[in-house]
Specification:
alpha/beta; TIM Barrel; 383 residues; 19 strands; 2 domains; eight-stranded parallel beta sheet; nine-stranded mixed beta sheet
Length: 383
């Protein structure tokens, strides 16, 4: 490594997740054009899938997103505290959720039961403001959402509360299971029945939404008025079938990287890491990388995942530990301080988050979302 290269490496964090905000902006812009005239909601729950909610939200809005979506109210309030005034929907609520705070902060609320609807209406009355709600119907995912048998009563109650000025039904929504074309079609038919019942009760929502990135790509008829962009906004394919980001016109926003912390030459037969689950078949060189499962690197990927190091993809060997793992570099030259990319944009030669997901028997969503707080985020772009 040159003197300048060594200085640059020394200036970088020991480990870091580099977030390309321009990639988020461009991914959202690309999908927004593709799904038009439907509007787009950028989902920034779970700290924007590990990318940083506030910065990712700003980048997504710059890319043309009309809405922001989160799971819980604390996430929504954090966006408001950061000065973001775009429409925000929160849809998963604790039994003791502070709905009054949501109403005061102009946060739209997903409703999955008549009990929630009543609680939101009471909260709206307590602060003297009208609550904006999106009624969620369960069309076959069997998670949260108003059950089909309770839907008629729910829309009737919502219509009464809307006429009384307690709530406004801004949206009706659901979520696709993304299992098969037949299952999606059945869910869309159920959604149409729910919309018809809502209309018969006197409701005229501004937005109807059921599709995430995957559904909107596969079934254009699922786009309705609004598409919720989740993992697609971050440049990770939503299908898990070998489709790449480039295939979809996207690029990954997160690169997880570290630096070689130690280099060691070992002989044939030497056991490596806990349990000696891997032994060297020949003399080889090992590079120690200071990231582990405490940082979100999945232990399940031990002996299966690869990293980009010294210009080549190289295998992780031995068990991934809490703070570190080892890479077999054979007889190639590596040095302390050399950059190691765990995942990023495959166009650079690096493994993708999906590659690590395959190695850990999971999905790219989990790989990026689980990167822990010990890993500092470095942001690029987004001016």
């Amino acid at each position: 490594m040159s003197a300048n290269g060594a200085a640059d490496a020394a200036a970088r964090p020991f480990r870091e997740a580099v977030i390309d905000l321009d990639a988020i902006r461009d991914n959202v812009a690309h999908l927004a054009r593709l799904f038009a005239p439907a509007r787009t909601m950028a989902v920034v729950k779970a700290d924007a899938y590990g990318h940083g909610a506030v910065r990712a939200a700003r980048a997504a809005l710059a890319g043309g997103a009309s809405w922001l979506g989160v799971a819980d109210l604390d996430e929504a309030v954090a966006l408001r505290d950061a000065g973001l005034d775009a429409p925000v929907l929160a849809w998963l609520h604790d039994p003791g959720a502070r709905f009054a705070v949501a109403v005061e902060r102009d946060i739209d609320l997903g409703v999955s039961s008549i009990e929630q609807l009543d609680a939101i209406a009471e909260a709206a009355a307590s602060v003297g403001r009208r609550a904006q709600v999106h009624l969620k119907v369960d069309t076959g995912l069997s998670r949260n959402g108003i059950a089909p048998e309770a839907w008629a009563a729910a829309v009737a109650a919502a219509a009464r509360l809307e006429r009384a000025g307690r709530i406004g039904v801004r949206g009706i929504f659901s979520h696709l299971a993304n299992t098969s074309a037949e299952a999606d079609a059945a869910q869309l038919a159920a959604f149409e029945r729910a919309l018809a019942a809502a209309s018969a009760a006197g409701l005229a929502p501004e937005v109807r939404h059921i599709a995430s990135t995957a559904g909107a790509l596969r079934r254009p008829e699922s786009r309705y008025d609004l598409v919720r962009l989740g993992i697609g906004a971050y440049g990770i394919p939503p299908f898990g079938d070998g489709t790449t980001a480039a295939d979809l016109g996207l690029r990954p926003a997160m690169t997880l990287r570290g630096r070689v912390a130690a280099v060691r030459r070992i002989g044939a037969g030497t056991g490596v890491s806990y349990g000696h689950a891997w032994r060297a078949e020949r003399s080889t060189t090992l590079a120690l990388v200071p990231l582990g499962y405490a940082d979100g690197v999945p232990r399940q990927a031990s002996g299966r995942a690869e990293v980009l190091l010294a210009g080549a993809r190289r295998k992780v060997v031995g068990r991934i530990a809490m703070d570190q793992f080892l890479v077999d570099v054979g007889d190639d030259d590596v040095a302390v301080g050399d950059e190691v990319v765990l995942f990023g944009d495959p166009a650079t030669g690096a493994p993708s988050a999906d590659d690590w997901g395959d190695a850990a028997d999971t999905i790219g969503y989990e790989i990026v979302t689980r990167i822990g707080p010990r890993v500092p985020r470095t942001y690029l772009g987004g001016a």
